[in-house]
Amino acid sequence: MSKCRCLVRIALGLILLHSDAIAIEPGELAGPVRLIGRDDREILVSNYDERPATAFVFLSSRCAATERSIESINALYQKYRLRDVLYVGVCANDIETAAELQTFARQRGMIFSIDRDPEGAASERLGVQATPGVCLLDREGRLVFRGGLDSEEGRAALESAIRQLLRGKSIEVASVPAAGTPIRTPGPRIDRTDPYGAPSFASELVFATIPGAPAHHCSTITEAPNGDLLCVWYGGSYESADDQTLFVSRRKRGQRLWTTPRPLLSNLSMPPGNAVVFVDGHKRVQIVWCRMEATRPIRRGSGWGQCRLFARTSNDNGESWSEDRMLLSDDDGAANEGVYGVPRNPPLTLANGTMVLPLEGDGGGLFLLSSDGGETWTRGGTAADGSQPTLAERADGSLLTLMRNRPNTTVATSMDGGLTWSATEPTELANPGSGISMVQLANQHLVLVFNNSAVERTPLSIVRSTDEGRTWEPPLNLESNPGEYSYPCIIQSADGQIHLTYTFRRYSIKHVEMNEDWLTKLSRPN
After folding, report:
1. Residues 144, 95: one domain?
2. What is the mean pLDDT of the chain?
3. How far apart are CA 238 and CA 165, in angstroms?
4. Model's pTM, two decimal places?
5. Quick one: 164 and 221 in the same domain?
6. Where does a domain end: 123, 151, 182?
7. The dihedral of CA 398, 403, 408, 410: what is its sign?
8. For position 317, which CATH number holds?
9. Using one digit for the tens of pLDDT, what is the confidence trace for 460-491?
10. 3-class SS letters over 415-483
C-alpha cells in the first residue's frame, strides 16, 4: 500500500471514529471499527485491503438463535476461510464478559475470535440490531452486504454475497434481516456442555520379560475392591507347554507402573490354561481357570478340549488366595467330575443379581449361572456356531452374546437369563477365529474389542454401540502393525475409565486406558 493511500485511510479513520454513530448503507465506507479484546485491549480493525472480504459477525452467547445457528455459521467460515475471508466476532452489549464469550467460543468450536463492543458503537455504525447478524465488507472497506444468520435463507444470502465478491462482481442478493435477540439486551446465560469432550489415552506393557517364560497370552483384568488393577495371564515356553504358568501383576490405585509379575500356579503334568479374574458378589476377587488335563506329551496349541474348571478366591484384593476348588455341576449327578470348558471373559451380573459366566464348552458357548454371588454355579444354556462368548444385558432384560467365529463374529440372544439361547447369526464384525471381549459401560453403551480381519490377528480394533449391540459405529484401530495383537479383556473401572489388556506379539501383555471420549471425539475444531 502506498504511503499516500495509507495516510488517506488513517485520516478517514480518524474522522469516522470521532463522528456520530450513523448507520451506513451498502456501498458506503465503514471506516475503522473499534472493539475491545481480551484484557480490555483496544482493537482497531481497519486493514480491509489485506483480504478480499471481512465479515463482522454479531452474536451473543446468550442468544438462542445464535446457539441454533452457530454450527452452520462455523461451517460457512470453514468453507471460505482459505479464500482469505475473515470473520470478526462481535458481541455488542455491556453484559457479557470476555471470559463468558471465550467459553462459548470454545464449547462451540469457533475458530475466530469474539471481541466486545460494549457501548454498541460498532453495531450502530454498521446498522445491526439483532443477533446473529453479519456485515460483509470488501477490500476497500465498503459495506456490500448486511443481513441475519439465524435462518438457512440468511446464511445462503451471505454465501451468495461472498461468492459474488470473490468473483469480482457487484453484489446482487437480497438480505434477510436478523430476527434473533435484540443486540443490546441479551437474555440469561445458557447452560451448555462441551460437545468436544477431553479424550484421554495411555498404554504400556505390563512387563518386558519374565525369566524362563518367553511366550505370553490370554490376559484378563479386573479392578479389586481397593481400586487396584489386577492382570492375570498365562506364560511359558509356548502355548500349552508343560511349564505354562498363571502369572499376576498389580497396578496400585493412583500409580502408573505394574508390579513385577509373580507366578500364581503351575503344574507340569496338568498346567493351567485360560483364566478370568473378577470381583464376585461377596466382594472377593475370584479367578476361574481351566486345568489342561490332556495326556502328555501334546503338540503346541492343543489340549483345550480337555480342560476342567477350577476357582480360587481372595479376601485381601488378590494378595493371598484360597485353595482351588472344582466348579461343580449338579444337573446330572456327576458332581465329582466338575465342569469341562475354557473361560475367556468374566461373568456378567444381571439386574436381578444372578451372575452369568460365559465359557467355551459343549461345542460352542456354554453359560454357567450363580444365584449366590459366585459361590456355586449351575449349568445354563448353550449357543451354537461360536465360542468364547462375551455378554451384555439389554434394557428389556434379554441377554446378548457375541462369540468368536471365523470369518465373522456371531450373535445370539436369551430371553430367560441364559437358560436358553436363540439361533446364532453372523454379524458384520470380522473375526479371524480369535478371542473378543465386550463391556457394558455405566451409561449402557457397549464397547467391543476384536480383530477386524477374517484371516489375521491384526489389526486389533475397538468399536462402540449405543443401541445395545444392534448396530456398531466405525471401528478404531488400537494396533495395526504386523504381528499378533489378540485375546483382549475389557472393563470399566469405578472412575469411569475404560481398561483393556491384550496379547502383544506373544512377547508381553499390553494395558490400555482410555475414556469414552477417545472413542468418539475424533477431531477438534482448530
Report:
1. yes
2. 94
3. 71
4. 0.88
5. no
6. 182
7. negative
8. 2.120.10.10
9. 999 999 999 999 999 999 999 999 999 999 99
10. CCCCCCCCCCEEEEEECCCCCCEEEECCCCCEEEEEECCCCCCCCEEEEEECCCCCCCCCCEEEECCCC
